[in-house]
Amino acid sequence: LAHLAESVVFDPIDVPTHENPYPAYQRLRDQAPVYHNPDRDFWALSRHADVMAAEDDWQGYTGKFGVDLDDTSNQFGDGVPPKGFFLGYDPPRHTVIRKALQGKFLPRGLKELEPMVREKCQQLVEQFIDTGSTDIAEGFATPFPDLVFAEVIGFPRDEHPRLSRLLRTALLRDLVNLPAPFIPQESVQAGLELREALKQIVAARRSDAPRDDLIGRLLAARPDDQEIPDEEIVGTLMFVFTAGTEEVTGVITNALRLLAEHPEQRALLVDEPDRIPAAVEEVLRYETIVQHLVKRPTRDIELHGQTIPEGARIVLLYASANRDDRVFEDPDRFDITRRGRGLASFGGGIHRCLGAPLARLEARVALEELLPRMPDYRVSGPIEWSQRVNFRGLRHLPLEWN
Ligand code: HEM
After folding, report:
1. ω before 179 within 30° of 0 (cis)?
2. Which residue CA neighbors atom 23 of ligand 1 most closely?
3. CA 283, CA 16: separation in Å to the nearest integer?
4. Angle between the N-to-C axes of helices 276-286 and 263-271, in degrees from 0 to 180, rounded to the nearest 10
5. Percentage of the residues of the chain whose pLDDT score is greater than 70
6. Predicted confidence (pLDDT) per residue in 298-335, tens digit
7. Residue 348 CA, closest ligand 1 atom number
8. How far is the CA of 223 from the centre of ligand 1 (A)?
9. 357: Cβ contacts below 8 Å, ≥ 6 apart
10. For residues 356 and 361, what is the distance between their CA atoms, to the nearest angstrom?
11. Model's pTM, two decimal places?
12. What residue's CA is closest to ligand 1, atom 30?
């Protein structure tokens, strides 16, 4: 294994690998399950069991120095981890912030949200459905989660479009023009403007009547009898706004592309819409939206005969875990009738995605509303992947239908 491992190369900051990472993941799993890339200065775990064991061990692996290879997470504010970026927190503060937000995302909270989610979805669909063609990424899969999440957070309605524009600009990355910076200047600027706008919104809400949205919950929380400081509330909102939107664009665009490529499976969904939730699970597995996150071990790790030193950057490859044939039968086959278990797409342990139920709800509603109205759609032009290093979703997906 050690001899084979030397010939395996994995570089996620490489455009062809970014566009099709799966052959590289398979080589990692089979030949180099503990992989080291000295040039980029990271290690990688690729097998399902290893990735999920690391996820379950928050004391052994921390996100507090940043969770990505391009330092995006440290752009959320001052400090490492930035205030409010609780994916990078350890307990006890992690528990406090997560608990303050949690209720909105539990089944009861979600049940209350569904009518609003469906209404936003229908309003957008009305705008383009009769034209017979649209770039569904731009015209639907981007604004839909932004509008939903702006409601959940509690942003003033007249500010939704501006906040959404700032958010999406802040998330732009440039992989193609390296060694130019990954994070373009306009995106840094948009991030700063977004933070400033959130600061003003939070300050204004301090003097308003209490409301039951995410801002209201953070303002009302009294962990250890202390208010959460504004700076940390702003950072938390900044983080959840990014975590709760583009990922959903990813699942919707991936679903529509995969179903166009598998028209017989799409026809099955049109006839039997009860299968949509299972189809969403398969989309989440087959094209893992958050391909990886980085964590650092708090001690030396011995695994498969190798030692990963304390403090090293370890890339946890959720996308590879989801294609591991040790867990999923025939993993490279897209099959919406699969009854899989062990989905790695939302991570695990104490940081397991807080928004997974909302993401599933939005994806289901999107397919329930779109498929009956454009059952025969096809991809009508070139698609374009997002260039965020660890992200799998489309920025452009032109569709046509009759
Ligand atoms: C399909 C869409 C989504 C995917 C694939 C996704 C994926 C992930 C992943 C992989 C993590 C890291 C888990 C870990 O470190 O173990 C995470 C964390 C998180 N996600 Fe999501 N996410 C999605 C949608 C959402 C939505 C809609 C929200 C809205 C609230 C959200 C909020 C969060 C938050 C707050 C965390 C950090 C939780 C913590 O540190 O305790 N995500 N997500």
Report:
1. yes
2. 247
3. 22
4. 150
5. 98
6. 999 999 999 999 999 999 999 999 999 999 999 999 99
7. 16
8. 23
9. 105, 106, 107, 110
10. 9
11. 0.95
12. 355
